[in-house]
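Researcher: Go.
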Amino acid sequence: MLKLGLKCSYYTEQLYDRLQYKPDIIEFHLNEDDLFGDKRKQLENTITMLSGQGCDVYLHHPSKYNGRYLNIITEQKEDYLFYHLSTRILANICLTHSIKCVIHPHYLPTAASTINKENTDKMVNEIKQILSYGRDVFLWENSIHGLFTAQNPNWLDEIVRPLNLPLAYDISHAFISFKGNNRLLLDQIEKLDSYIQYFHVVDSEGQKHDGLQLGTGRINWKSILPFLTSRPYIYEINLKDITDAVEMYESHLYLVQLSKHD
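Model: Structure:
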């Protein structure tokens, strides 16, 4: 059974657009100020409203602080403190509402995300700290380049398996990590199957972060389809208009058609 999962902010214009499609799942991408004061109240009220309508809600940890992409092992003290404060708050929200939150250990390739033993040890320690705020709350998402990615040959053995990490697996990020190799992509999904709890579904040419509508890139969706029927996911397509989710919905129709020809 293919479910419809859509992404947006919880602000009215985007949310009402998504709700017209009657989604099974909504993922809220949060900004740094969404976790405090009146905005947090509005967020929690929206979660309650959607849950009451039978829609599953997932949150996405803010990707930036003061305009900088976050990294779990940053040397920047201000960013480090925000990463921990925000994850404590999100753990509290998720535990209160029985929902989960997608989180990136890092985004951009930096010295701190370079693949080596020192960084691996640091990352494992930092992830353990975040897990202490809420063991089952966070779903850890792979980036494209660096330590917490499909590009790292030791990702499973040195980070995911020892920590028994639940993953939010971004299919296009992995595809780009593998330079557009569908065989390597499918092999890794099969290996990580027991750890993947959630997918970001988006097509790609496999060369750079392009966020394509399904069927317009080079990912072989036929082979991945069986994995998508057994767990939640959202479509994470680059939209022409952020207030109009048509490319996400058309991606869903593409998968539905594909499943009928299975």
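Model: The beta strands are 5-8, 25-29, 56-60, 64-65, 68-69, 100-103, 138-141, 167-170, 196-201, 233-235.
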